[in-house]
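Quarterly update, task 2.4: 2'-deoxycytidine-5'-monophosphate-bound model.
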Amino acid sequence: MQIPDIIVAIDGFSSTGKSTFARLIAKEYSLLYLDSGALYRAVTLHAMENGMIDGNGDIDEKKLHESLGREKISFGPEGTYIGDRCVEKEIRTMGVSSHVSPVSAIPFVREYVDSLLHEFGRRRRVVMDGRDIGTTVFPNAEVKIFMTATSEVRARRRFDEMVGKGQNPKMEDVIKNIEERDYIDSHREASPLSKAADAFVLDNSDMTLHEETVWFRGLLQGKFGILE
Ligand code: DC
């Protein structure tokens, strides 16, 4: 099915399957997929590796601010990069997950990541997932989706994903991390996670991936009057 040059904004809670869904529709409709959370994770990894987060989780914001101008965080052939080092694996660890919400709540970090995302959005034909894509980054996106699922389903997905990557998580830590991130992401001052008024809600607690793509196809057909 041919679709116009649109931006698709996908927001929602963590572990709702946003990136799996976004990757799939990117492939099906020839869109570029951009994972905005990966950029926040890379900033967090950078801060951790350079001693900007102490044992109590306190962040040296001044040092981080100064260093962000010098460090090049970007997307490349293998995923997310800091300079020319691919950090795709390192940014998915529990250590990064436990610090990423406070780092992403810092206004200058959001400005930095937004500027990278706007750069990509200029090309159109993009599907981007995150927490504030439809509300703040691309408020004019043609299609906005807000994904949600029960916290039990989300914790199980995150747990399976980590095990699949050879990690050895504890279920109680995974649940705790998801609940903490939900809270921080929805209560922070700068661009909190919230549903855009014109976003379509996709609750996939009891849906297969295939059912999600059928739902999306129906949405596109209705929105753009495509009959096939
Ligand atoms: O989608 P994820 O779990 O990889 O995102 C990691 C963190 O980054 C998440 O806890 C909140 C933050 N984030 C954000 O604040 N805004 C976005 N657009 C994307 C992610």
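Highlight for this quarter: Residues 14, 36-37, 40-41, 100-101, 104, 130-133, 181, 185 surround 2'-deoxycytidine-5'-monophosphate (CB under 6 Å).
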